Amino acid sequence: MLIIDTSIWIEFFKVNDPYFNIVREHLEKNNVIALEVIFSELIQGCKNSKEVNIIQEYWKNLEKFSEENLMLEAAKLSYSNKFIDKGVGLIDSVIIYASYKLKCKIWTVDKKILSVLNDENKFSP
């Protein structure tokens, strides 16, 4: 499974290559797992209700990861690894925690996230 970070989704929705084709390929293979924090960031940045509806439609149709105490577990991971000292906030810590928990990769261009990820959790096309 692959967690696609907000920055990559934005490129996908803009139909920018190579992001669009690679994301589409993973979507077609049902290889994408959605996190509420990522889709919340996407909706927060929407310009109109049409964009909100498109993002909600993807959210509705993707496999999701959530668990009780997700934010607390992510905060503990952040604390124990000093993510805050590396500029990695709580939302990004949730994404990283989910990746570790699911043993899957994150596709991101966020340099702060990339700086704290293990190689086995980094996706590079």
Outline the structure in words.
57% of the residues lie in helices and 10% in strands. By secondary structure, the protein is of the alpha/beta class. It has a single domain, classed as 5'-nuclease (Rossmann fold), CATH 3.40.50. It is globular and about 40 Å long.
Report the total helices: 7
What is the CATH architecture term? 3-Layer(aba) Sandwich
Give the SSE string. EHHEHHEHHEH
Annotation, overall tally of beta strands = 4
Q: What is the CATH third-level topology name?
A: Rossmann fold
What is the count of structural domains? Answer: 1
- Strand order within the widest sheet? 3-2-1-4
**Helical amount among residues, as a percent range?**
55-70%
Quick one: CATH superfamily? 5'-nuclease
CA distance, first residue to last residue: 14 Å
* Class derived from helix and strand content: alpha/beta
Give the helix/strand layout:
Elements: E1 2-4, H1 6-13, H2 19-28, E2 32-35, H3 36-44, H4 49-61, E3 63-65, H5 70-81, H6 90-102, E4 105-107, H7 111-116
Parallel strand pairs: 1-2, 1-4, 2-3
Helix pairs in contact: 1-2, 3-4, 5-6
